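User: Need the bound-state model for adenosine-5'-diphosphate:
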Amino acid sequence: MSLSPPEKTAEQERSLLNVEVAGESAVATGSTEVVYELRGVDVHYGQALAVGGINMRIHKNVITAIIGPSGCGKSTMLRTLNRMNDAIPGFRLSGEVLYHDRSIYERNIDPVEVRRRIGMVFQRPNPFPKSIYENIAWAPRILGLRADLEERVENALRGAALWDEVKDRLKQSALGLSGGQQQRLCIARALAIEPDVLLLDEPCSALDPIATASVEELMHELRRDYTQVIVTHNMQQAARVADRTAFFSLNVENGSRSGVLVEYDTTKTIFTSPGDQRTADYIAGRFG
Ligand code: ADP
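Assistant: Bound-state model below.
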């Protein structure tokens, strides 16, 4: 189901942070289809519980932000959604991560196929030292999607709002692009294999404010066709881009710390009337 692009929010509100809250247009327009359902998810690295007891649903065509203090398991949770943690020594997951009702950790599920459906964009733009065209064409070629490759590359670059800026220099090195363009190129690279979900791990932390704005605007545009989950340490960013926000925090028990999901609601509720004191303290900058 395709949703209308976000309204330029009549419902924008001042939050506790004194920033504009993006509103809930995708939520309000009825995207209740569940893409992910996490049931009782615990993640350990070795003996240490990194994040525990996670129950949450992630909805289609909704931008979901994961926020919280450093070390509370934001990245771990994000990487759990496309099995990017698999290669980490000692990584262990219990509970269920259902993606369109199927457990992605079942024995017979191919992690490569999971990552084909669920793309990821990282903190630092990481284009290959190749031409702009080759950056985009690489993954489709590997996956045998060779038909109409030029069209596929163009569509991906258009999808990432980069085509007009690069169409005359497709053969030039991607490393010559600005930081913001490189990050949009990485998003285009993910789009080239037509994923269903985009996971973004602090995608703007290495970008200046103008480049950040271009990526955030792109996220709004992509909401029509993709489900997006973003980890950000920047609360203003969560307030600007996300429809729903999950606040994670650190529990300290017997001297060991692990991440917990404290509150998960519409971004408006999290930023203007959170139900949990820990959320309110964090949003207000009282980090304990
Ligand atoms: P956040 O993204 O919120 O900063 P992380 O998911 O990176 O949190 O980390 C959560 C916990 O898991 C932390 O205690 C961290 O030290 C631990 N952790 C993260 N990555 C690894 C790893 N590769 N090996 C061992 N422990 C890890």
